[in-house]
Amino acid sequence: MKRQNPLLEELQKVLPNIAKNAEEAENLRKVPEENIELLKKIGLHKAFLPKVYGGYEISLPEFGDCIAALAGACASTAWAFSLLCTHSHQIALFPKQAQDDVWKDDPDMLASSSIAPFGKYQETDGGVIFSGDMRWSSGCEHAQWALCGFLRENKEGTKDHCFALIPATDYSIDDDWYSAAMKGSGTKTLVIRDKFVPEHRIQKAKDMMEGKSGGFGLYPDSKIFYAPYRPYFASGFSAISLGIAERMLETFKEVTQGRIRAYTGAKVGTATPALLRIAESTHQVMAARAFLEKTWDEHAEYAEAHQYPDRAKLAEWRTNQAYVVKMCIDAVDRLFSSMGASHWYLDKEAQRLFRDSHITGAHAYTDYDVCAQIFGRELMGLEPDPSLL
């Protein structure tokens, strides 16, 4: 879909340089500083920053298009940076005091996350004492804050999934990201020991899904902050999968058009199998984009109308994204499986696209085995299964 997107136009100018750094990102096991500087220079990190701090508050469809394009250049950079961006949407749902802690003195501050509730805590006056080895914090070396998950006992005797907003001065980073895919995302572990987190920097996940958080209503003219946090937080995963698949279509054509079989001299690019594979994968990726754009547009329409989705709509949105990822992985596999042994060399782009494509379907939010159960239960009128995230 063609839509006005000035930020995407600026992004297109820096993508060639980011693409050149893709191999370096894998070697460094984190996003190169040059990539971060290029993306900050065009202001992509301000996508979901509140306007009061100089942010852009762009729509989710605009953001999704940017992340898909970025993923075609370097999926690791897209993975880490998209999360650094979407966390700003999440922080904007915290009380104003917490937002000021992060952005008042420097609106370029970024936050990584480890949102699974692995954190440990002790109650204390005015907040909690927090500890934990918080894993899966993508882009953490480029962040000055972190959103960390934990389960906090409430007055009813049950536990609430909460997020603690913690400054980088209160944790160290365990350099433990040795992965077969998304190698350059720098998804490392935050080590936190007995750090005080004040009450204004703690929010319940449920409240942030239902318009009940401390930051609700702070920006009455906003078109993005009257929305549950999770669809924004997770929006990058499917966009990245789409961007990888779109780039694989181009890569397949580039390498196959001139490919000659070593033993027979046959032209691969004009053979029927190659034509069938590129045709079906192109249709699949086109369908994935159309389906994802429809979902992004619904997100934007609900947020602009200040309307919160019900459980059924949330289930649909989440599982739509997971199905897009499934389609994109299928499209990539169809192409890569016929590209020949030479494209398994580590200096070949196709093998990196193949690896990175598969990990987009390994996140808890995009695991289609989980999502199909969630959606199936909703379609059949069954209550949600608490064992499914």
Automatic annotation (TrEMBL):
Every Acyl-CoA dehydrogenase/oxidase N-terminal domain range: 17-101
Keyword Protein transport: no
GO molecular function: acyl-CoA dehydrogenase activity; flavin adenine dinucleotide binding
Protein keywords: Oxidoreductase
Gene3D superfamilies named in the record: Acyl-CoA dehydrogenase/oxidase, N-terminal domain, Butyryl-CoA Dehydrogenase, subunit A, domain 2, Butyryl-CoA Dehydrogenase, subunit A, domain 3
Superkingdom of the organism of origin: Bacteria
Domain Acyl-CoA dehydrogenase C-terminal: 236-367
Protein name from the UniProt record: Alkylation response protein AidB-like acyl-CoA dehydrogenase
Native source species: Marinomonas alcarazii
